[in-house]
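Pair request: fold both.
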Amino acid sequence: MYQTDLNIIAREAEEREDENYTFRSWLKMKDSKPLDRLVHEINDKVSASIDCTKCGNCCKTLVINVTQQDVISCSKHLNLTKEEFKEKYIEESQQGEMYINTIPCHFFADKKCTIYGNRFKDCRDFPHLHKPGFQGRLLGTLMHYGQCPIVYNVLEELKVRLRFR
């Protein structure tokens, strides 16, 4: 029912780059609350049909943000001190923002997260389509269009439902 082949998704993302740029501009003119409701509805349906653990492309290709709570939870889970965990797995910016220090993520193996129950907040929330304020995240969402089957399918269905094409 939904497209999950990453090769097809990547190819179509290239082919639809101009269309998606126009779609982004068009969406900015829509009323945000009904748009959020529609995106949430479509996302719920698409997310229920696509098993992220069979893909894991986000774990292979994205920079993963880490919160202080993530450090506490994961270090406990791995029986490490917070300092040991940070030294081994985290890079910190001058502004104090933390990121996993490798791409792909250290904890990604066999298309699965080895710390899934304790995965980072950024990972639990990705691709952020369940959150309010979809219009404010359009650029980031479109950046993931060619990488994430959920984003791809939600946006394609959104185009149909809004009669964009």
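--- second member of the pair ---
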Amino acid sequence: MPRRRHLLASLFGLALLSLGGCAALVGPPTVTLSETEIGRLMERNFPLDRSLLDIFDVTVNAPRVRLLPERKRLAAVVDVRARNRLLGLSWQGQIDFDAALRWDASDQTVRLDQVRVQDLAFADPGAFNRNTVERLGAALAERVLEGSAIYRLPAERAAQLRAKGYVPGSVDVSSRGLEITFVPLPATAAPPR
């Protein structure tokens, strides 16, 4: 009988260890947004209208998104219109850009970061040199898009996670989509019990 108890105790101990191991495998909470979901969320924040240098009015339409997990970046193609207030000239074109992503804790958003225009083509640059217009347009586009919010964590979800002792820790782009991983609150900022 003692051998049987020892065997049962060992099996119970192994079961507890394996459950603990499963919890470690699950890891911290993560919110994953697919490429399609990211596209839909970004549509809510577009068209984006900005004024630059009190000279240019720029409108950027909703992007067509794709993931670049190998580079940990998000890419998109957008239609853009720019108007020079001083000269009364307008241009229309298309921008292909990519960006890293960053978490902004102040408003619980994921924002575009380190935006790089890969290609910009204006339909008709008019009397101006196409290369000059496109270089200027790329610089303006990067400034317009930099810091744009693409996702806001719902306040209710943020409160639930905070109550469980978690806050957003990192934002990543994987083959599954945009992943926001939550980490335990620092000991000094633990929620009241």
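Observation on the second member. The first strand starts at residue 30 and ends at 33.
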